[in-house]
Amino acid sequence: MTNVTSAKSARRPHHWRRDLVELAALFTAVAVADALANLIAHGPDGGFLLVASAVALIATAAFHTWWARRHGHGHAPPASGGDGPSASAPATAPDVSESMGREGAEREETTLWRMRTTVKDEPGSLAALCVTFATHRVDILTLGTHPLADGTVDEFLLRAPASLQAKDLVREVSAAGGTATWVERADAHDLVDTPTRVLGLATRTALDGAELPLALRQLLGRCTIHSRPAGSTGGRAAGGDGGPEDECEGIDGQDGTEMRLRDPHGGSITIERPYLPFTPTEFARAHALVELDTRLGPRIPRSQDVLTLPEGEEITVRRADIADLDAALAMHSRCTPRTLGLRYHGPVGDADRYLTHLLSPRFGRTLAVQTASGRLVALGHLLWDGDETEVALIVEDTWQRRGIGSELLRRLVALAVEARSGSVYAVTQASNTGMVAAMRDLGLPLDYQIDEGTLVITARLEHAAPGGSPRPSYNDSGLFDRTTP
User: Fold this and answer.
1) How many other CB atoms are there within 10 angstroms of residue 159's CB atom?
2) Are 216 and 362 in contact (CB under 8 A)?
3) What are the structural domains, with CATH classification, of the chain?
4) pTM for the full model?
5) Strand (E) positions, 431-479?
6) CA distance 392 to 409
7) CA distance 410 to 221
8) Euclidean distance between CA atoms 315 and 484, whole angstroms
9) β-strands 253-255, 224-228: how paired?
10) Is the pLDDT of residue 29 over 70?
11) What's the rounded mean pLDDT across residues 359-378?
C-alpha cells in the first residue's frame, strides 16, 4: 500500500511538448515502415530481404530467451504497466520472507525482564536509554514513570535476547545514565499494562475483603505485608506466639523500603520491600486500594457447596468471617482439650482469643463446615504469614475421620494456588496423624522439619493444578459435592 501511494505521488503531470515528441516519433515510424515496404515490393532483392528479416527476428528471439533463462533464473517477469518498485516487488519477496523467518527464530530465544532505573528529569534522558536498548536488540513492552523530587524512576518490561545477562543489562543502562538500577525476571503475568492490572486488582478487592493483602502484594511486587490489629503487634495468632501489647501507629506514609497504611478495620498495614524503595506513585496506588476496601466495608463471597458424606449426611462448606465468631466459640466448647492443643499449640484456655484474628478476612481466608441444622463443626484457615502462607484445620471430635479435614485442606490449597503462593505450610505435631495424612493426600512435594516435637510440613505448589472449582463427582475424600449460590 505504501509503494502504490509513493508511485502515484512520484508521477509528473503530462506536458504538451511530450505529446508533440510522441506524435513526431509516430510519423517517423510510419515513414520508415512505408520505405521498407516499397523496397521489398519493388526492389530487385525484395524477397531476399524479407526472408533475411524473418531469420534475424527468429535469431533475436531465441537469443533473448536463452539469455533470460541463464541470467534471470528465479526472477518473476515484470508486471505489465507497473512502475519500477512494483515490478521488482515479486523478485524480492522470497528474500523478505526469509529475513522474517530468521527474525522470528531469533525472537524465540528471548527473556522477559522487569527493570527499574532512576534517570535525571531532563530532556533526552529517556532517549538515551532507548538507544541503548535498540543497540542490544531489547524490545520495550511497557513503560511506566514514577516522578521523584530529584529525578524520575522509569519502570520497564523488556524482552531481551537470551544471551544478554542481567549484569550486562545493568552495566549498559548505567552507562546510559541510569542509577539505582534493579532487574529481575518477569513472566507471562507481567504482560499486562499497569492500568489494566490495577483495575483487575480493584475488582478482586471489591468482590472479596480477603483479597486486599494479595492485591497489595501483586501491585507492589515481591514484598512482605504485616496486618496488625489495634492494640497489639499481631504475632502469629494461629500458633499461639502473640507478642507484647503496644499501640499501632496507623499513620499513612512511605519511607524508603517501608510503607504504612491505616487499616479500615483498626490497626495498621505495614508493607516492607528491602530490595527496592517505594515511590510516591506506588504509595498512591496502594492507598487507593485500601480506601476502596474501607468504603465497601466487610464482605465475603456467599457461594457455598453442599457435600454428601459417605454415611449420607449433608454438610455445607462456605466462606466464614467475624460474623461466625459465636458459632466458632461454641464449636471450641465441644472439642476435647487434645483437639484444641493439636490445633493451637498452646494452652487450651488461649484458643478462644485467637478466633477474632483468624476469622478476619484481613489475615487470610477461612472456610467453615456446618451441618444441615446449621451447627459449625469444622474450620479451615489460609493465613497470609508475611510472604509465606499457612494452612490450619480444626474438626470437632465427633466429625473427625470422615474426610472433612482432607476436603478443607484441598480447597485451601486451591485458594493458595489462585493467590499465586509458591508453597503452603502446616504447623502440627508428629502425633497428629490426621493432619499428616491429609497433607500427603495432596499429592504434592512435601518437606518435613521437626523442632522440639513440633512438625512443620511444607507443600510446594508449582505442580498444583490452578483453579479451585469443586468437582461434580466423588472426590478423593469420598464426598459428593454440588455448588449452590
Assistant:
1) 16
2) no
3) 108-190 (3.30.70.260), 194-296 (no CATH), 304-484 (3.40.630.30)
4) 0.59
5) 446-451, 454-460
6) 8
7) 27
8) 12
9) unpaired
10) yes
11) 89
